[in-house]
């Protein structure tokens, strides 16, 4: 496909193949202290995988049709599912040709029974006169489960799921009457707890038209019931070209334990970290896009430089020492108060995969953490819109710490009272 690809890039074919090979070969992971690399196929979840899979299937299809010397009367492909119209005597030969193209790609064949053949969610029906009809189809093992009416999702998403289901049943069912279609729709949607009144209203609503004025900017925000929909409504009324999509923290992935080896805190990137002072209750909040271990090396290098200069006979008030204060608020505290931090034992307070969000997160954590040694200028770029919310979070955090301290003190007092040797 290089003739089609070259129109969209300025690099040559050799470099392009080298880049693709590098991206595909970078699929590795660690499991039980052993590293594995994928030697065949592409990794699930990689943005490149669907594109390469489609190219491979297109190439395989062309080669198989050429090798079989048989031109099907009709052929359609969806990812790795094929629908072909062949004479029944040609089926086995064509199947053998497809399976001879790649030893790792093997096809199975399903032929029509009683003039019926399913393909995806479509049932193709061939009448005796040669005409073809269609019907909406679900596999016998299908649970019929779609997005439940009581699920923790915005109402517009639920309505979109229902409208899409109604459209597919109506467009794919050429053998059912209008009443039969509505009965089928009611049966499936009722199993997912959708009220009959809502189903009836959506069944008889006028045809929907596409909105020609689509947002030019999209932003994702966590879904909070009642709040997220209000934000979306306000932005819509303000005529701003901003589209809102919702993200969810309580996903299926959170219900299962990750089988891969966990990444140590020091090996994580894009984190907000905290380092406590060994000599006072102060703490330092920082961020890094690199591995946390590398950032700790940087802090330790500054401290080592300070220690070396002190051993050389310099004083804390010497210009050579004071120049180090500009490196970070952490070393500034070390010099001004002659304290040291637990650099070897940092803790991660937040993490994100969006690098552009790190600065905002760092400022938020600095604002909500008491006794920080960070400079006041570290939060100058924080929007005042967050002020009230961050102040409430800080007050709640202080209350939790006070309650926890009182609880621990009472527990220690009770233990001493119960111990007769005390």
UniProtKB/TrEMBL annotation:
Residue intervals of the Reverse transcriptase domain: 1-141
InterPro entries cross-referenced by the UniProt entry: HTH_animal, RT_dom
Chain positions covered by the region annotation Disordered: 403-422
A Pfam family reported for this protein in Swiss-Prot or TrEMBL: HTH_animal
Protein name: Reverse transcriptase domain-containing protein
Organism: Aedes albopictus (Asian tiger mosquito)
The organism's taxonomic lineage, starting at the top: Eukaryota, Metazoa, Ecdysozoa, Arthropoda, Hexapoda
